[in-house]
Protein backbone atom coordinates (compact mmCIF):
# COMPACT_ATOMS: atom_id res chain seq x y z
CA UNK A 1 0.00 0.00 0.00
CA UNK A 2 2.79 2.37 1.02
CA UNK A 3 4.57 1.55 -2.20
CA UNK A 4 1.45 2.33 -4.21
CA UNK A 5 1.06 5.68 -2.47
CA UNK A 6 4.69 6.50 -3.10
CA UNK A 7 4.33 5.62 -6.76
CA UNK A 8 1.21 7.77 -7.04
CA UNK A 9 3.07 10.68 -5.41
CA UNK A 10 6.02 10.26 -7.75
CA UNK A 11 3.71 10.23 -10.75
CA UNK A 12 2.19 13.55 -9.70
CA UNK A 13 5.64 15.03 -9.14
CA UNK A 14 6.94 13.83 -12.48
CA UNK A 15 4.00 15.27 -14.33
CA UNK A 16 4.26 18.50 -12.35
CA UNK A 17 0.58 18.47 -11.66
CA UNK A 18 -1.30 18.58 -8.38
CA UNK A 19 -3.82 15.96 -7.37
CA UNK A 20 -6.42 17.81 -9.37
CA UNK A 21 -4.66 16.84 -12.59
CA UNK A 22 -6.10 19.84 -14.40
CA UNK A 23 -4.18 22.27 -12.25
CA UNK A 24 -0.39 22.56 -12.47
CA UNK A 25 1.24 22.25 -9.07
CA UNK A 26 3.81 25.00 -9.55
CA UNK A 27 1.61 28.07 -9.31
CA UNK A 28 2.59 30.40 -6.47
CA UNK A 29 1.49 29.09 -3.09
CA UNK A 30 -1.12 30.56 -0.72
CA UNK A 31 1.78 31.38 1.61
CA UNK A 32 3.41 33.50 -1.07
CA UNK A 33 0.23 35.54 -1.59
CA UNK A 34 -0.33 35.84 2.15
CA UNK A 35 3.22 37.09 2.59
CA UNK A 36 2.64 39.73 -0.09
CA UNK A 37 -0.54 40.93 1.63
CA UNK A 38 1.39 41.22 4.88
CA UNK A 39 4.13 43.21 3.18
CA UNK A 40 1.58 45.53 1.63
CA UNK A 41 -0.09 46.01 5.02
CA UNK A 42 3.26 47.09 6.47
CA UNK A 43 3.55 49.84 3.87
CA UNK A 44 -0.04 51.12 4.12
CA UNK A 45 -0.45 54.51 5.83
CA UNK A 46 -2.01 54.61 9.32
CA UNK A 47 -5.74 53.94 9.60
CA UNK A 48 -6.18 52.89 5.97
CA UNK A 49 -7.68 50.25 3.72
CA UNK A 50 -6.53 49.21 0.25
CA UNK A 51 -9.22 48.02 -2.16
CA UNK A 52 -8.57 45.95 -5.29
CA UNK A 53 -10.96 44.79 -7.98
CA UNK A 54 -10.50 41.74 -10.21
CA UNK A 55 -10.15 42.29 -13.95
CA UNK A 56 -13.35 42.34 -15.98
CA UNK A 57 -14.16 39.84 -18.71
CA UNK A 58 -13.74 41.53 -22.11
CA UNK A 59 -15.92 40.73 -25.06
CA UNK A 60 -14.25 39.56 -28.27
CA UNK A 61 -17.31 39.33 -30.49
CA UNK A 62 -20.94 38.35 -30.13
CA UNK A 63 -21.06 35.69 -27.39
CA UNK A 64 -17.32 34.99 -27.35
CA UNK A 65 -15.12 36.67 -24.74
CA UNK A 66 -11.34 37.09 -24.72
CA UNK A 67 -9.54 34.47 -22.66
CA UNK A 68 -9.71 35.77 -19.11
CA UNK A 69 -6.58 37.20 -17.52
CA UNK A 70 -6.55 38.32 -13.91
CA UNK A 71 -5.38 41.78 -12.91
CA UNK A 72 -1.73 41.26 -11.88
CA UNK A 73 -2.07 43.10 -8.54
CA UNK A 74 -5.13 41.05 -7.66
CA UNK A 75 -3.33 37.85 -8.64
CA UNK A 76 -0.18 38.82 -6.72
CA UNK A 77 -2.14 39.39 -3.55
CA UNK A 78 -4.55 36.47 -3.74
CA UNK A 79 -3.80 33.83 -6.40
CA UNK A 80 -7.46 34.14 -7.41
CA UNK A 81 -7.95 33.80 -11.17
CA UNK A 82 -11.63 34.66 -11.61
CA UNK A 83 -13.55 37.85 -12.25
CA UNK A 84 -16.27 39.66 -10.23
CA UNK A 85 -14.27 39.90 -7.02
CA UNK A 86 -13.16 42.60 -4.63
CA UNK A 87 -10.39 42.43 -2.02
CA UNK A 88 -9.99 44.70 1.01
CA UNK A 89 -6.73 44.82 2.96
CA UNK A 90 -6.86 46.78 6.21
CA UNK A 91 -3.91 48.38 7.94
CA UNK A 92 -5.38 47.55 11.35
CA UNK A 93 -7.45 44.70 12.69
CA UNK A 94 -11.20 45.06 12.21
CA UNK A 95 -13.97 43.51 14.29
CA UNK A 96 -17.06 42.17 12.50
CA UNK A 97 -20.58 42.42 13.96
CA UNK A 98 -20.28 38.79 15.10
CA UNK A 99 -17.01 39.52 16.90
CA UNK A 100 -14.68 38.03 14.28
CA UNK A 101 -11.38 39.87 14.11
CA UNK A 102 -9.88 40.18 10.62
CA UNK A 103 -7.52 42.32 8.59
CA UNK A 104 -8.47 41.30 5.05
CA UNK A 105 -11.64 40.23 3.35
CA UNK A 106 -12.53 39.04 -0.14
CA UNK A 107 -15.86 38.79 -1.97
CA UNK A 108 -15.94 36.30 -4.86
CA UNK A 109 -18.28 34.73 -7.39
CA UNK A 110 -20.63 32.16 -5.87
CA UNK A 111 -20.61 28.61 -7.21
CA UNK A 112 -23.13 28.12 -10.01
CA UNK A 113 -23.78 24.68 -11.49
CA UNK A 114 -25.07 25.91 -14.84
CA UNK A 115 -22.28 28.47 -15.33
CA UNK A 116 -19.70 25.89 -14.32
CA UNK A 117 -21.14 23.38 -16.80
CA UNK A 118 -20.47 25.82 -19.64
CA UNK A 119 -17.41 27.72 -18.47
CA UNK A 120 -15.56 25.54 -15.98
CA UNK A 121 -15.21 25.34 -12.23
CA UNK A 122 -15.33 28.25 -9.81
CA UNK A 123 -13.59 28.24 -6.46
CA UNK A 124 -16.46 29.88 -4.63
CA UNK A 125 -15.99 31.18 -1.10
CA UNK A 126 -15.21 27.73 0.34
CA UNK A 127 -12.59 27.10 -2.33
CA UNK A 128 -11.03 30.49 -1.70
CA UNK A 129 -10.77 29.65 1.98
CA UNK A 130 -9.37 26.16 1.51
CA UNK A 131 -7.26 26.56 -1.65
CA UNK A 132 -6.07 30.14 -1.25
CA UNK A 133 -6.08 30.44 2.54
CA UNK A 134 -8.15 33.61 2.56
CA UNK A 135 -10.30 32.87 5.58
CA UNK A 136 -12.60 35.85 5.35
CA UNK A 137 -14.07 34.92 1.97
CA UNK A 138 -17.70 35.65 1.14
CA UNK A 139 -19.98 35.57 -1.84
CA UNK A 140 -19.98 38.81 -3.81
CA UNK A 141 -23.76 38.83 -3.32
CA UNK A 142 -22.95 39.82 0.29
CA UNK A 143 -20.74 42.80 -0.57
CA UNK A 144 -23.58 45.31 -0.84
CA UNK A 145 -24.88 44.66 2.65
CA UNK A 146 -21.53 43.97 4.32
CA UNK A 147 -21.00 46.76 6.76
CA UNK A 148 -17.60 48.42 6.54
CA UNK A 149 -17.48 51.90 8.04
CA UNK A 150 -15.38 53.46 5.26
CA UNK A 151 -15.87 56.96 6.69
CA UNK A 152 -13.63 56.15 9.62
CA UNK A 153 -10.51 55.57 7.51
CA UNK A 154 -8.01 58.34 6.90
CA UNK A 155 -7.15 56.74 3.55
CA UNK A 156 -9.12 54.47 1.23
CA UNK A 157 -6.54 53.49 -1.37
CA UNK A 158 -7.68 52.21 -4.76
CA UNK A 159 -6.99 52.63 -8.46
CA UNK A 160 -9.30 55.13 -10.03
CA UNK A 161 -11.88 53.70 -12.37
CA UNK A 162 -11.54 53.87 -16.15
CA UNK A 163 -15.28 53.36 -16.58
CA UNK A 164 -14.61 50.62 -19.11
CA UNK A 165 -16.31 47.70 -17.38
CA UNK A 166 -19.40 46.27 -19.01
CA UNK A 167 -22.66 46.24 -17.07
CA UNK A 168 -24.38 42.88 -17.29
CA UNK A 169 -27.83 44.21 -16.46
CA UNK A 170 -29.08 40.75 -15.57
CA UNK A 171 -26.39 40.28 -12.91
CA UNK A 172 -26.41 42.47 -9.81
CA UNK A 173 -23.11 41.00 -8.61
CA UNK A 174 -21.00 41.42 -11.73
CA UNK A 175 -17.87 43.53 -11.51
CA UNK A 176 -19.74 46.60 -12.69
CA UNK A 177 -22.19 46.27 -9.79
CA UNK A 178 -19.43 45.63 -7.25
CA UNK A 179 -17.74 48.86 -8.34
CA UNK A 180 -21.03 50.77 -8.17
CA UNK A 181 -21.69 49.38 -4.68
CA UNK A 182 -18.20 50.38 -3.59
CA UNK A 183 -18.71 53.90 -4.95
CA UNK A 184 -21.84 54.27 -2.88
CA UNK A 185 -20.13 52.94 0.25
CA UNK A 186 -17.23 55.41 0.00
CA UNK A 187 -19.17 58.41 -1.32
CA UNK A 188 -17.29 58.43 -4.58
CA UNK A 189 -18.14 61.63 -6.47
CA UNK A 190 -20.87 61.03 -9.01
CA UNK A 191 -20.97 61.97 -12.69
CA UNK A 192 -17.23 62.05 -13.05
CA UNK A 193 -14.20 59.98 -12.45
CA UNK A 194 -12.16 61.01 -9.45
CA UNK A 195 -9.39 61.94 -11.85
CA UNK A 196 -11.20 65.04 -13.05
CA UNK A 197 -13.21 66.12 -10.03
CA UNK A 198 -12.41 69.43 -8.46
CA UNK A 199 -10.29 69.07 -5.31
CA UNK A 200 -13.00 70.53 -3.06
CA UNK A 201 -15.45 67.97 -4.40
CA UNK A 202 -13.15 65.06 -3.75
CA UNK A 203 -13.75 63.16 -0.55
CA UNK A 204 -10.79 63.65 1.71
CA UNK A 205 -10.12 60.00 2.40
CA UNK A 206 -10.32 58.78 -1.22
CA UNK A 207 -6.75 58.15 -2.28
CA UNK A 208 -6.26 57.12 -5.91
CA UNK A 209 -2.67 58.29 -6.17
CA UNK A 210 -0.56 56.22 -3.76
CA UNK A 211 -1.46 52.60 -4.36
CA UNK A 212 0.54 52.35 -7.57
CA UNK A 213 3.72 53.37 -5.78
CA UNK A 214 3.16 50.91 -2.97
CA UNK A 215 2.48 48.05 -5.36
CA UNK A 216 5.46 49.05 -7.53
CA UNK A 217 7.69 48.91 -4.47
CA UNK A 218 6.52 45.37 -3.77
CA UNK A 219 6.22 43.93 -7.25
CA UNK A 220 9.45 45.45 -8.54
CA UNK A 221 11.63 43.35 -6.24
CA UNK A 222 11.13 39.66 -6.91
CA UNK A 223 11.02 36.90 -4.31
CA UNK A 224 12.77 33.58 -4.84
CA UNK A 225 9.45 31.91 -5.76
CA UNK A 226 8.85 34.51 -8.46
CA UNK A 227 12.41 34.21 -9.74
CA UNK A 228 11.93 30.50 -10.23
CA UNK A 229 8.89 31.10 -12.44
CA UNK A 230 10.59 33.91 -14.35
CA UNK A 231 13.60 31.69 -15.01
CA UNK A 232 11.26 29.03 -16.36
CA UNK A 233 9.46 31.51 -18.64
CA UNK A 234 12.82 32.78 -19.88
CA UNK A 235 14.26 29.31 -20.49
CA UNK A 236 11.18 28.26 -22.43
CA UNK A 237 11.36 31.42 -24.56
CA UNK A 238 15.09 30.92 -25.21
CA UNK A 239 14.49 27.31 -26.22
CA UNK A 240 11.90 28.52 -28.72
CA UNK A 241 14.41 31.01 -30.16
CA UNK A 242 16.95 28.20 -30.53
CA UNK A 243 14.48 25.88 -32.27
CA UNK A 244 13.50 28.63 -34.70
CA UNK A 245 17.15 29.37 -35.46
CA UNK A 246 17.53 25.74 -36.55
CA UNK A 247 14.22 25.46 -38.38
CA UNK A 248 13.92 28.77 -40.25
CA UNK A 249 14.14 28.73 -44.05
CA UNK A 250 13.46 31.22 -46.83
CA UNK A 251 9.87 30.75 -48.02
CA UNK A 252 8.42 30.28 -44.55
CA UNK A 253 5.91 32.87 -43.35
CA UNK A 254 6.09 35.22 -40.38
CA UNK A 255 3.03 33.46 -38.96
CA UNK A 256 4.70 30.07 -39.25
CA UNK A 257 7.75 31.33 -37.31
CA UNK A 258 5.38 32.70 -34.66
CA UNK A 259 3.71 29.29 -34.58
CA UNK A 260 7.00 27.48 -33.94
CA UNK A 261 7.80 29.76 -31.02
CA UNK A 262 4.34 29.42 -29.53
CA UNK A 263 4.28 25.66 -30.07
CA UNK A 264 7.46 25.38 -28.00
CA UNK A 265 5.88 27.59 -25.30
CA UNK A 266 2.92 25.27 -25.09
CA UNK A 267 5.01 22.12 -25.30
CA UNK A 268 6.54 23.26 -22.01
CA UNK A 269 3.08 24.01 -20.56
CA UNK A 270 3.34 27.80 -20.70
CA UNK A 271 -0.26 28.93 -20.50
CA UNK A 272 0.00 31.92 -22.79
CA UNK A 273 2.17 34.54 -24.39
CA UNK A 274 2.97 37.48 -22.10
CA UNK A 275 2.20 39.96 -24.92
CA UNK A 276 1.28 39.67 -28.59
CA UNK A 277 4.14 38.02 -30.47
CA UNK A 278 6.20 40.24 -32.77
CA UNK A 279 7.69 38.52 -35.82
CA UNK A 280 8.77 40.99 -38.47
CA UNK A 281 10.88 40.17 -41.52
CA UNK A 282 12.85 42.91 -43.31
CA UNK A 283 11.18 46.30 -43.12
CA UNK A 284 8.41 44.93 -40.86
CA UNK A 285 11.02 44.73 -38.10
CA UNK A 286 11.05 48.55 -38.09
CA UNK A 287 7.54 48.61 -36.58
CA UNK A 288 8.34 48.37 -32.89
CA UNK A 289 5.20 46.55 -31.83
CA UNK A 290 4.45 44.83 -35.16
CA UNK A 291 1.78 42.23 -34.42
CA UNK A 292 0.29 41.50 -37.86
CA UNK A 293 2.86 38.81 -38.68
CA UNK A 294 1.19 38.45 -42.09
CA UNK A 295 4.13 38.29 -44.49
CA UNK A 296 3.66 35.01 -46.37
CA UNK A 297 7.17 34.48 -47.70
CA UNK A 298 10.31 35.56 -45.93
CA UNK A 299 13.34 35.89 -48.18
CA UNK A 300 17.00 35.00 -47.83
CA UNK A 301 18.15 38.60 -48.10
CA UNK A 302 16.18 39.65 -45.02
CA UNK A 303 16.67 39.52 -41.29
CA UNK A 304 13.75 38.62 -39.10
CA UNK A 305 13.13 40.30 -35.74
CA UNK A 306 11.45 37.99 -33.23
CA UNK A 307 10.24 39.49 -29.93
CA UNK A 308 8.29 36.88 -27.98
CA UNK A 309 7.81 35.86 -24.38
CA UNK A 310 6.19 32.81 -22.84
CA UNK A 311 3.94 33.44 -19.87
CA UNK A 312 4.49 30.72 -17.29
CA UNK A 313 2.28 30.62 -14.18
CA UNK A 314 1.59 34.30 -14.71
CA UNK A 315 5.19 35.45 -15.23
CA UNK A 316 6.44 36.55 -18.62
CA UNK A 317 9.78 36.59 -20.39
CA UNK A 318 10.55 39.29 -22.97
CA UNK A 319 13.27 38.26 -25.40
CA UNK A 320 14.18 39.50 -28.88
CA UNK A 321 16.51 37.89 -31.31
CA UNK A 322 17.19 39.17 -34.83
CA UNK A 323 18.63 36.65 -37.26
CA UNK A 324 19.40 36.42 -40.99
CA UNK A 325 16.84 34.26 -42.78
CA UNK A 326 19.64 32.78 -44.94
CA UNK A 327 21.66 31.71 -41.90
CA UNK A 328 24.44 34.24 -42.65
CA UNK A 329 24.45 37.97 -41.93
CA UNK A 330 25.22 40.22 -44.93
CA UNK A 331 28.05 42.75 -44.33
CA UNK A 332 25.54 45.59 -43.71
CA UNK A 333 23.35 43.46 -41.44
CA UNK A 334 26.40 42.38 -39.47
CA UNK A 335 27.63 45.96 -38.99
CA UNK A 336 24.26 47.11 -37.62
CA UNK A 337 23.83 43.95 -35.55
CA UNK A 338 27.21 44.30 -33.90
CA UNK A 339 26.56 47.94 -33.12
CA UNK A 340 23.35 47.03 -31.27
CA UNK A 341 25.19 44.23 -29.50
CA UNK A 342 27.89 46.64 -28.38
CA UNK A 343 25.27 49.04 -27.04
CA UNK A 344 23.71 46.21 -25.06
CA UNK A 345 27.09 45.09 -23.71
CA UNK A 346 27.92 48.62 -22.56
CA UNK A 347 24.59 48.90 -20.74
CA UNK A 348 25.15 45.50 -19.12
CA UNK A 349 28.53 46.72 -17.81
CA UNK A 350 27.05 49.61 -15.82
CA UNK A 351 23.90 47.80 -14.72
CA UNK A 352 23.81 47.24 -10.94
CA UNK A 353 21.93 48.42 -7.85
CA UNK A 354 21.67 52.22 -7.74
CA UNK A 355 21.65 52.72 -11.53
CA UNK A 356 18.59 54.27 -13.23
CA UNK A 357 16.99 53.16 -16.50
CA UNK A 358 17.84 56.53 -17.96
CA UNK A 359 21.58 55.96 -17.30
CA UNK A 360 21.45 52.82 -19.41
CA UNK A 361 19.41 54.44 -22.16
CA UNK A 362 22.02 57.22 -22.38
CA UNK A 363 24.88 54.71 -22.63
CA UNK A 364 23.16 52.80 -25.43
CA UNK A 365 22.27 56.01 -27.27
CA UNK A 366 25.91 57.17 -27.11
CA UNK A 367 27.20 53.89 -28.59
CA UNK A 368 24.55 53.84 -31.30
CA UNK A 369 24.98 57.50 -32.29
CA UNK A 370 28.76 57.13 -32.53
CA UNK A 371 28.44 53.94 -34.58
CA UNK A 372 25.82 55.33 -36.94
CA UNK A 373 28.06 58.34 -37.57
CA UNK A 374 31.04 56.08 -38.31
CA UNK A 375 28.91 54.12 -40.80
CA UNK A 376 27.85 57.35 -42.50
CA UNK A 377 24.19 56.81 -41.60
CA UNK A 378 24.25 59.96 -39.43
CA UNK A 379 26.11 63.11 -40.37
CA UNK A 380 27.01 63.82 -36.77
CA UNK A 381 26.68 62.04 -33.43
CA UNK A 382 24.39 64.76 -32.15
CA UNK A 383 22.03 64.71 -35.15
CA UNK A 384 18.42 64.10 -34.12
CA UNK A 385 17.11 60.86 -35.58
CA UNK A 386 14.54 58.16 -35.20
CA UNK A 387 16.68 55.06 -35.69
CA UNK A 388 16.53 54.20 -31.95
CA UNK A 389 13.22 55.64 -30.79
CA UNK A 390 12.67 53.74 -27.55
CA UNK A 391 14.15 53.39 -24.07
CA UNK A 392 16.53 50.62 -23.17
CA UNK A 393 14.95 48.91 -20.19
CA UNK A 394 11.83 47.95 -18.28
CA UNK A 395 10.87 45.60 -15.48
CA UNK A 396 9.33 42.23 -16.29
CA UNK A 397 7.20 40.02 -14.07
CA UNK A 398 3.45 39.48 -14.01
CA UNK A 399 3.28 42.22 -16.65
CA UNK A 400 5.68 42.44 -19.56
CA UNK A 401 6.12 46.10 -18.63
CA UNK A 402 5.99 45.34 -14.95
CA UNK A 403 5.55 47.64 -11.99
CA UNK A 404 8.78 48.75 -10.34
CA UNK A 405 10.98 51.75 -9.63
CA UNK A 406 12.82 53.16 -12.64
CA UNK A 407 15.07 55.63 -10.86
CA UNK A 408 17.17 53.31 -8.76
CA UNK A 409 17.67 49.62 -9.43
CA UNK A 410 17.66 47.27 -6.45
CA UNK A 411 18.92 43.73 -5.96
CA UNK A 412 16.41 41.11 -7.18
CA UNK A 413 14.70 43.33 -9.68
CA UNK A 414 14.33 41.71 -13.13
CA UNK A 415 14.66 43.93 -16.16
CA UNK A 416 15.25 43.87 -19.88
CA UNK A 417 18.09 45.55 -21.72
CA UNK A 418 16.94 46.00 -25.31
CA UNK A 419 18.65 48.50 -27.58
CA UNK A 420 17.73 48.52 -31.26
CA UNK A 421 18.38 50.19 -34.60
CA UNK A 422 15.57 50.48 -37.16
CA UNK A 423 16.22 51.87 -40.66
CA UNK A 424 12.95 51.86 -42.63
CA UNK A 425 12.74 52.13 -46.41
CA UNK A 426 13.36 55.68 -47.71
CA UNK A 427 15.36 56.74 -44.65
CA UNK A 428 17.76 59.67 -45.27
CA UNK A 429 20.83 57.44 -45.69
CA UNK A 430 22.37 55.19 -48.34
CA UNK A 431 19.76 52.69 -49.45
CA UNK A 432 21.98 49.70 -48.74
CA UNK A 433 20.87 50.18 -45.11
CA UNK A 434 17.15 50.35 -45.84
CA UNK A 435 14.96 47.67 -44.36
CA UNK A 436 17.48 46.70 -41.70
CA UNK A 437 15.96 46.42 -38.22
CA UNK A 438 17.77 44.91 -35.24
CA UNK A 439 16.67 44.61 -31.63
CA UNK A 440 18.54 42.47 -29.11
CA UNK A 441 16.61 42.02 -25.91
CA UNK A 442 17.69 40.01 -22.89
CA UNK A 443 16.32 39.53 -19.39
CA UNK A 444 18.50 40.26 -16.37
CA UNK A 445 18.36 39.69 -12.65
CA UNK A 446 19.95 42.52 -10.69
CA UNK A 447 22.46 41.02 -8.26
CA UNK A 448 24.36 42.67 -5.39
CA UNK A 449 27.12 43.83 -7.69
CA UNK A 450 25.82 43.64 -11.25
CA UNK A 451 23.58 41.45 -13.37
CA UNK A 452 22.87 37.81 -14.04
CA UNK A 453 21.80 37.34 -17.65
CA UNK A 454 18.85 34.96 -17.42
CA UNK A 455 18.46 34.53 -21.17
CA UNK A 456 21.95 33.19 -21.95
CA UNK A 457 20.50 30.09 -23.54
CA UNK A 458 19.53 31.99 -26.70
CA UNK A 459 22.66 32.75 -28.78
CA UNK A 460 23.40 36.43 -29.17
CA UNK A 461 26.67 36.88 -31.04
CA UNK A 462 26.94 36.71 -34.84
CA UNK A 463 29.16 33.61 -34.68
CA UNK A 464 26.95 31.76 -32.21
CA UNK A 465 23.77 32.52 -34.16
CA UNK A 466 25.30 31.47 -37.49
CA UNK A 467 26.67 28.27 -35.92
CA UNK A 468 23.31 27.26 -34.44
CA UNK A 469 21.49 28.05 -37.68
CA UNK A 470 23.61 25.40 -39.44
CA UNK A 471 22.27 22.66 -37.17
CA UNK A 472 19.46 20.38 -38.35
CA UNK A 473 15.96 20.85 -36.99
CA UNK A 474 13.37 18.29 -35.96
CA UNK A 475 10.99 20.30 -38.12
CA UNK A 476 13.00 19.60 -41.30
CA UNK A 477 10.93 16.42 -41.69
CA UNK A 478 7.64 17.94 -40.61
CA UNK A 479 6.01 18.57 -43.97
CA UNK A 480 2.29 19.19 -44.12
CA UNK A 481 0.12 18.42 -47.18
CA UNK A 482 -0.84 21.27 -49.53
CA UNK A 483 -4.31 22.69 -48.87
CA UNK A 484 -6.57 22.88 -51.88
N1 LIG B 1 7.90 43.16 -26.18
C1 LIG B 1 7.67 44.49 -25.83
C2 LIG B 1 8.89 45.13 -25.37
O1 LIG B 1 9.96 44.69 -25.71
O2 LIG B 1 8.89 46.03 -24.59
MN1 LIG C 1 10.86 44.66 -23.72
MN1 LIG D 1 10.22 42.65 -26.23
Automatic annotation (TrEMBL):
Residues of the signal peptide: 1-18
Keyword entries, A-Z: Aminopeptidase, Hydrolase, Manganese, Metal-binding, Protease, Signal
GO MF entry, a single one: metalloaminopeptidase activity
Pfam family name, one: Peptidase_M24
Aminopeptidase P N-terminal domain segment(s): 28-168
GO BP, sorted A to Z: proteolysis
Cofactor(s) listed: Mn(2+)
Family: Belongs to the peptidase M24B family.
Protein name as catalogued: Xaa-Pro aminopeptidase
Amino acid sequence: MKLLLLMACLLFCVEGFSQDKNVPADFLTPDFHKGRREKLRETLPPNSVAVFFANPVRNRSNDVDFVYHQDPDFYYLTGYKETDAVLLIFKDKQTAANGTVYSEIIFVRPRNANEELWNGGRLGKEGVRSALGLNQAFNNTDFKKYNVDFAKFSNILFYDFNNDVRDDASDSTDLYSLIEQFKVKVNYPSKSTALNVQPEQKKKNLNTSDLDNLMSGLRGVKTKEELELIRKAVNISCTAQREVMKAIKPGMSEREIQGIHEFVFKKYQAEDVGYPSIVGAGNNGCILHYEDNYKPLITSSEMILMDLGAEYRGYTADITRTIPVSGKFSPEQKLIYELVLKAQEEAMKICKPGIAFQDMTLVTQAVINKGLKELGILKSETERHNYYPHGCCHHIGLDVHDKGARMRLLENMVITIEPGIYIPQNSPCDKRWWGIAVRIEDDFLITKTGVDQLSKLAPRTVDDIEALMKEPSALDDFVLPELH
